Amino acid sequence: MRERPGITDRPAFENRPDRIENRQQWQENRQQRRDEVRDQVRDNHPGMDFWSDHPGWAAWRINRPYRWATWGALTGWVGYGWSEPMAYSYGENVYYEGDSVYYGDEVVATGEEYAQQAEDIVASAPEVAPESAEWLPLGVFALSPDGEASGPAPTLFLQLAISKEGTITGTLHNTATDKTQTIEGMADKESQRAAWTVQGQTRPIMETGIVNLTEDTAPALVHFADGTTQQWLLVRLEEPAPAPKQ
Q1: DSSP string, 25-92
Q2: How many domains, in total, are found in the chain?
Q3: Residue 58: inside a domain, yes or no?
Q4: CB count, 10 Å around CB of 202?
């Protein structure tokens, strides 16, 4: 992501989702990075007016893309019958060790299998005419490597929304290149894993637990075409204040 045009190549930093030893420090780093990212966005993009300037990108008839859903609102919207959320705390209850991926103390897949599962979730999304579906906004997030207390100002911004059928859509906007791509994906009913990629591509794939997208910071995984997986952080952005009238 650092000085890259988008999530199309594996960034130079290494950030495999191994088990975190000092969880308290990691959480403190996330909170510090969240606050720093929000300050950086206010300083560098005070209006963040991309969506108002490009209404066609605003997730098809969503005019408040910064709004976000609570777990209760999400479960009431998606007809999956979810009651309790499944936790996906990468580096804590979901982590990589050797070639295996663990959920708690149980091996659930190899690293390759886990990434393929995410690809299968994306591929399971039904064909939906965007203008005929109803969308619930999940918010706008800035993307940053996870685990760092400080870093450069973000240039990648992800806007997500979900349909009543569990289809995920949105935009990936790169402020460094002013390039915007459409996102497509799906929330899996059984596992509650949400996965998405740029429309027309199979990798890289970003995934997280759907409940993570109801929080102000959302740890996520990115599976790259070369077989590597990295741990990233989605920082929820607050809706910018309207520009003062002239």
Answers
A1: HHHHHHHHHHHHHHHHHHHH-SS--HHHH-GGGSTTT-S-TT----HHHHHHHSTT---SPPP--BTT
A2: 1
A3: yes
A4: 12
Beta strands across the sheet bearing 100-103: 94-97, 100-103, 106-110
3-state helix, strand, coil in the chain (%, to 5): 25, 30, 45
| pLDDT tier for residue 129 given thresholds of 50, 70 and 90 | low
Among 188, 208, 218, which residue's Cα sits nearest to residue 82?
188
**Domain assignment of residue 107, given as a range:** 23-236
15, 189 Cβ separation under 8 angstroms? no
Q: Looking at the chain, how many residues does it have?
A: 246
Say whether pLDDT at 131 is over 80: no
β 179-187/193-198 pair status: antiparallel
The four Cα atoms 185, 190, 193, 196 give a dihedral, to 10 degrees, of -10
Residue 159 lies in a domain: yes
pLDDT of 63 reads 62
Residue 10 belongs to a domain: no
SS3 of 206-221: the string is: EEEEHHHHHCCEEEEE
Count the Cβ atoms, other than its own, within 10 Å of residue 167: 22
The answer to whether position 95 is within a domain reads yes
